[in-house]
Specification:
The complex is a heterodimer of chains A (493) and B (361).
Chain A lengths: L2 E3 L2 E4 L11 E5 L6 H8 L10 E3 L2 E3 L4 H7 L1 E4 L11 H6 L6 H15 L14 H13 L5 E5 L7 H16 L3 E6 L2 H7 L2 E6 L2 E6 L6 H9 L17 E10 L9 E9 L3 E5 L6 H9 L12 E3 L2 E2 L5 H6 L2 E4 L14 H9 L5 E2 L2 E2 L1 H14 L16 H14 L4 E5 L7 H16 L3 E5 L3 H7 L2 E6 L2 E2 L3 E2 L5 H8 L8
Parallel strand pairs in A: 3-8, 3-9, 6-7, 7-8, 13-20, 13-21, 16-19, 19-20
Antiparallel strand pairs in A: 1-2, 4-5, 9-10, 11-12, 11-14, 14-15, 17-18, 21-22, 21-23
Helix pairs in contact in A: 11-12, 11-13, 12-13
Chain B lengths: L6 E4 L5 H25 L4 H10 L5 H26 L7 H18 L8 H27 L3 H21 L34 H18 L1 H11 L1 H7 L5 H26 L10 H11 L4 H24 L4 H18 L1 H4 E4 L9
Antiparallel strand pairs in B: 1-2
Helix pairs in contact in B: 1-13, 2-12, 3-7, 3-10, 3-11, 3-12, 4-5, 4-6, 4-10, 4-11, 5-6, 5-10, 7-8, 7-12, 8-9, 8-10, 11-12, 11-13
Classes of the chains: A alpha/beta (493), B mainly alpha (361).
């Protein structure tokens, strides 16, 4: 199968054979072409060349409905459920039948495959793991012969991953073939019996992952040896740069999660990681720290930055105290998509001499932008390229670079390596550690536990708006963090 | 079969060549399509296009009339374009123009005997304030209630027309005016001085030209204009950087209203010389076309306002000399905008034709 988007060949003559009773991994970095391949198989996109054989017969997959009719189901990385409807109502949108019958089938499937969920619960009240179960049940009700799962574990706490794997093994034993997309090597080794490895849109390996060690797989995936993980040595920490004391906040949006009793202390020369599954209050916490959400002046000391109460100050005032921030959404928040990179430099870097008497100094702006592009290896045609035309990873490098060049005292990064390829992700993490070593206080929110363990000195876990006590990243086990992530720790059994 | 259809691919950056070419392509396409329309109507297209597009530029007296129309179009479009670039769509310049005319007329209507060189500048100022005030309503509703400014500004224009009717049929009607819905003729000092002797072109054209400079500095060079643009294009990015999010909405509408009000004042204190129903021949709506045809760029708008003014004069010519209905002129203006909006797609995107593959099944 071949598929090109403009100049970029996302899939280049890819051969893939999925057997019966097989859990087949598609392994590759971000941008390797995994998602494109799945879209071709699920009928979302049509190939430029190549053909699909289903049970030995050539078929044309012109739409997802066509794919479902053949028996191909897909569980997406980002869920497509209506939050205000119940589980059974969501399912009845796709599967015909009376509600009572559907509810019975949901329960039966739940028991058969370990997908326990209350059919009459409203979706907004479900955890991420439960929502994923609903998606899988919805797929199973169309009785698929091939089930595609796109990075299903990226949203799950460690304990739920085990449950999901049990379910997938049971499905395999009943004759459902499974395509499992991931870039997590250990998961693939424990679950899959076959792995097709993609790199730059081509197949670079077809192996039994149980016969190879992680090092081999990684080399096939990134085309060179993995950069060594960089375990930073502990440093003596300095003064408190950022402090949140018993911070409570209920956002205006009734569906948004509030924060309660959040305590956090960030010192110079350390990296503090906020772990947790997305949707547990990370967004609100980030906005409170950045100043996009402000509190009344009476509560100014709930957030202290560089020793000053700042909870009432706007982002510009906080930045003036030495604060820099890389938000989770790059387009539309960290950068303006319609503007050039040069104009996007101006967004936060304008105090670095890019203005002259209220007018923009175009030369200084271009110089700064060119430096940022060069130092942070942003792949683009130049400072005049529009931010919206950059890939997610490259834009992330640009925004990271812009904020780091501000030489902040406190650097706050949300999801530093989302959608960034491994090489660039490693560079970003090394840069964060380097910032720490230079005495900057670094705060990182991330969903990726491995990432936090790699770079952080301490970790705190956010669950349903509560922040756990500080845990030492060097001595705490992943399982313990996992317990905090699902709210099972710190509570007497 | 989707692979056989040419598709659009986003460019790495906006193409300057296409940005300049787009209005010319639109003009060519509009001429071609309207040629067919004129033929279908049984008109002689050569005569129509001569009257419509060439005659306005031939001869000083008709060209001076083009300049006279250019003033209000340029002023309103310049104000609107600032808002459009921040994605705040003020469609109600017509109403703001009318309110500007009304506010300006208040001085000569209530003080018909007053004399002095202060009167016409005061009228311009009043007009600008009136237009801006009329824009306060949609701005406030958008910021506080998230009411769509397109609908509110449009409806406010209809209200403005009724306010004008009420005044002209009631309290402001000229008692000596044989019951015509119009105000008294303004006194000499309420008239803007003539700029070019022997024509009707007055000093307000200089104001319009000055607006080009102001808009250029503000939008292309100043940090204030930059913050304003960020607020309109990406409100979350403005919040992230610590710029005001509502500032773009307020400024867009106030600047648009200010400019349109100024144009309205210049019209009653200029070529018309009194408040009457026909003060605007759709300037507020035509200026939307002018703003887009000019690529929302201050210099581009200078060119497009001249073109649109010529179309006004040319349309009048064609009505007389080629017996063209006024609706046909409107169709020409409208088709120009439609083709332009189609053409500017190619500023940010390029068309990719599918490569022909031999042996593809």
């Amino acid at each position: 199968m071949t598929k090109a988007y403009g100049q970029v060949v996302a899939n280049d003559a890819i051969d893939l054979t999925v057997g019966r009773n097989s859990i087949h991994a598609i392994l590759g970095e971000n941008g390797a072409g995994k998602s494109t391949l799945m879209k071709l198989i699920y009928g979302v996109e049509s190939p430029d060349a190549g053909e699909v054989l289903w049970d030995g017969q050539p078929v044309t997959l012109s739409s997802p409905a066509e794919a479902r009719r053949l028996g191909i189901g897909m569980v997406f990385q980002h869920f497509s459920l209506f939050e205000t409807l119940s589980v059974v109502e969501n399912i009845s949108l796709i599967v015909p039948g009376k509600k009572a019958d559907l509810a019975a089938r949901i329960r039966a499937l739940g028991q058969d495959f370990g997908l326990d969920v209350d059919p009459f619960a409203d979706v907004h009240s479900l955890s991420v793991g439960e929502r994923q179960r609903v998606e899988i049940i919805r797929c199973l009700m169309t009785e698929p012969k091939l089930l595609i799962l796109d990075e299903p574990t990226s949203v799950l706490p460690p304990q739920a991953v085990g449950l999901l794997f049990d379910t997938l093994r049971r499905l395999r034993d009943r004759g459902v073939s499974i395509l499992f997309i991931s870039h997590k090597l250990d998961e693939i080794q424990s679950l899959c019996d076959h792995a097709t490895i993609l790199r730059g849109g081509r197949v670079t390996g077809n192996v039994d992952p149980r016969q190879h060690d992680a090092h081999d797989l990684a080399r096939m995936m990134i085309g060179r040896d993995m950069p060594p993980p960089l375990h930073a040595d502990p440093l003596p920490v300095g003064d408190i740069r950022l402090e949140l004391s018993a911070l409570d906040h209920q956002p205006d949006d009734p569906f948004a999660l509030g924060l309660s009793g959040v305590n956090l202390r960030l010192h110079a020369g350390e990296i503090l990681g906020i772990a947790g599954i997305s949707g547990n209050g990370q967004g609100e916490l980030a906005r409170l720290i950045s100043g996009e959400t402000r509190l009344s002046p009476a509560r100014r000391d709930d957030i202290r930055l560089m020793g000053r109460g700042v909870a009432h100050l706007d982002p510009a005032a906080r930045r003036a105290l030495g604060f820099a921030f890389v938000p989770e959404e790059r387009l539309g928040r960290g950068a303006v998509p319609e503007m050039s990179l040069a104009d996007n430099s101006l967004l936060t870097a304008h105090p670095l001499g890019l203005l002259k008497r209220g007018l923009i100094d175009r030369r200084a702006e271009a110089t700064f932008t060119a430096a940022c592009i060069r130092d942070f290896d942003v792949r683009t045609s130049g400072p005049e390229a529009e931010a919206g035309a950059l890939s997610g990873g490259n834009l992330q490098k640009f925004i990271m670079g812009r904020e780091i060049l501000l030489k902040p005292q406190v650097l706050f990064v949300a999801q530093p390596t989302w959608g960034v390829d491994i090489g660039a992700a490693t560079a970003i993490r090394q840069r964060l550690v380097q910032m720490r070593n230079e005495g900057v206080a670094v705060l990182v929110i991330s969903e990726e536990l491995e990432e936090l363990f790699e770079i952080c000195d301490r970790i705190q876990v956010l669950h349903k708006g509560h922040l756990s006590p500080s845990l030492d990243a060097r001595t705490t086990k992943a399982e313990e963090i996992g317990r905090w992530m699902i709210g099972a720790a710190g509570v007497p059994a | 079969m989707s692979r056989m259809i040419p598709h659009l691919v986003r460019r790495d950056r906006a193409s300057l060549r296409m940005a300049v070419l787009a209005p010319l392509l639109a003009l060519a396409a509009a001429i071609f399509v309207n040629l067919l329309v004129f033929l279908a109507m049984g008109k002689n297209p050569a005569a129509v296009f001569y009257a419509l597009l060439l005659e306005p530029f031939l001869g000083w007296s008709s060209f001076s009339e083009v300049l006279l129309k250019t003033g209000p179009l340029l002023l309103i479009a310049q104000g609107l374009a600032i808002g459009f670039r921040a994605k705040v769509f003020n469609i109600g310049a017509e109403g703001q123009f009318i309110l500007g005319a009304i506010f300006a007329s208040a001085i000569p209507v209530y003080f018909p005997q007053a004399t002095g060189q202060w009167i016409w500048p005061a009228m311009l100022l009043m007009g600008a304030l009136g237009g801006a005030l009329w824009a306060v309503v949609p701005a406030f509703w958008r910021v506080k209630l998230n009411a769509n400014e397109i609908l509110v500004t449009l409806m406010m224009s209809l209200i403005a027309a009724q306010v004008l009717n009420y005044l002209l049929l009631g309290p402001w009607k000229d008692p000596m005016g044989f019951n015509f819905p119009q105000s008294v003729m303004f006194q000499y000092d309420a008239m803007i001085p003539i700029l070019l002797a022997g024509t009707r072109v007055n000093v307000s054209l200089l104001l319009a030209l000055f607006s080009v400079l102001v808009a250029w500095v503000y939008m292309q060079r100043s940090f204030g204009g930059y913050q304003f643009l960020v607020g309109g294009l990406a409100p979350k990015a403005a919040a992230y950087a610590g710029f005001s999010e509502s500032r773009a909405i307020w400024l867009s509408l106030l600047i648009g209203g200010f400019a349109a009000g100024l144009a309205g004042a210049a019209e009653v204190a200029g070529p018309i010389g009194q408040l009457q129903r026909g003060i605007s021949t759709g300037y507020g709506y035509a200026a939307i076309i002018v703003a887009y045809l000019g690529g929302l760029h201050p210099l581009g708008i200078l060119a497009s306002s001249l073109l649109m003014a010529a179309l006004y004069i040319g349309g009048d010519n064609a009505m007389v000399s080629a017996d063209l209905p006024i609706a046909a002129v409107r169709v020409f203006q409208g088709s120009l905008l439609v083709f332009y909006l189609a053409a500017i797609t190619f500023v940010r995107f390029r068309l990719v034709w599918p490569q022909h593959k031999a042996g593809a099944a």
